[in-house]
Amino acid sequence: MQTAGLSIERLAEKTKEVDPAGYGISQSAIGTMVSTGHSGRNSFTARSADLVARALDRPIEELFTNTPA
């Protein structure tokens, strides 16, 4: 998200654009996904991860590993 220069708000909008159902992911859910706290990064579905990856035009594996791209 930071590399793409997107805010949580804009990333949420982009997930709606790539979601075939048009729902996307809420800003609060994205906030949880990017959180570095205890609940962050472990509280999302495969669908959410897929939508974020598609919105950022990146493979899921690149986004959810600790290895820099």
Backbone structural class: mainly alpha
β-strand number: 0
H-E string:
HHHH
Name the beta content range. under 5%
Query: What is the residue-mean pLDDT, rounded to a whole number?
Result: 85
What overall geometry do the principal axes of the alpha carbons give?
globular
Report the C-alpha radius of gyration, rounded. Answer: 11 Å
> Could you tell me how far the N terminus lies from the C terminus, measured between alpha carbons in angstroms?
13 Å
Number of helices: 4
Q: Strand count, sense and closure of the main sheet?
A: none
Helicity range of the residues?
40-55%
If you had to describe this structure to a student in words, what would you say it looks like?
With 69 residues, this protein is mostly helical. Helix content is 49%, strand content 0%. It contains 4 helices and no strands. Helix 1 packs across helix 2 and helix 1 crosses helix 3. The longest helix has 11 residues. It is globular. It starts with 7 loop residues before the first helix and ends in a 6-residue tail after the last helix.
Secondary structure layout:
Elements lengths: L7 H11 L8 H8 L11 H11 L3 H4 L6
Defining key terms:
69 residues, mainly alpha, globular, 4 helices
Quick recap of the structure?
The chain has helices at residues 8-18, 27-34, 46-56, 60-63. With 69 residues, the chain is an all-alpha fold.
